[in-house]
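FORM 7B: Structural annotation worksheet

SECTION A. Query
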Amino acid sequence: MAELEHKASYIRAIQMLIIPGVFQTESYARAIIRSGITDLPTNELNARVEHRTRRRDIFDRPRPTPFEAFIHEAALRMRYCDPETMRAQLAFLHEVSTWPSVTIRIIPFTRQITGSVHSTLYAGAEIPALDTVQLDSAFDAGFLDAEAQLARYRALLDSIESISLDTEESAQFIQHIAQEM
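SECTION B. Predicted structure
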């Protein structure tokens, strides 16, 4: 995934149950990784956390990669960690939403989602034929690059965009949930 993010001209992502990895704090990333692999040795856990947080380097380049993230309300409320860690994660996500190359859009529970939605990362290339979709599951990832598949995921992302809160509403929504914790 890091290579996709690094080489992409733009990124659009959907996350239903967790905060996108590139926007995770160290403590939240540690909790997420540990919840999936409980017997992971400490040195490997530390390496995975460091790798995940270093993916943010795409925003430190002279021309940062535009990243549009659609995050379901469930991801903001799921408890993979203690409330203090989650509040810090939401505060960081709110900060990230102010970065010039980042767009955060929240999908509230009250909006109807059409179709099946999985955690999806759409990495756009300068030449659309080189676009790639990554689909995540709990234990692996799949990659799609056939034009018909890409067209379906572009349509899905456009559909999700149409039901998501705008950026200002999303920032307020994130703050509201953080205050509830």
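SECTION C. Observations
The beta strands are 10-15, 67-72, 102-107, 120-124, 132-136, 141-144. The chain has one domain: 2-180.

SECTION D. Sign-off
Analyst initials: ____
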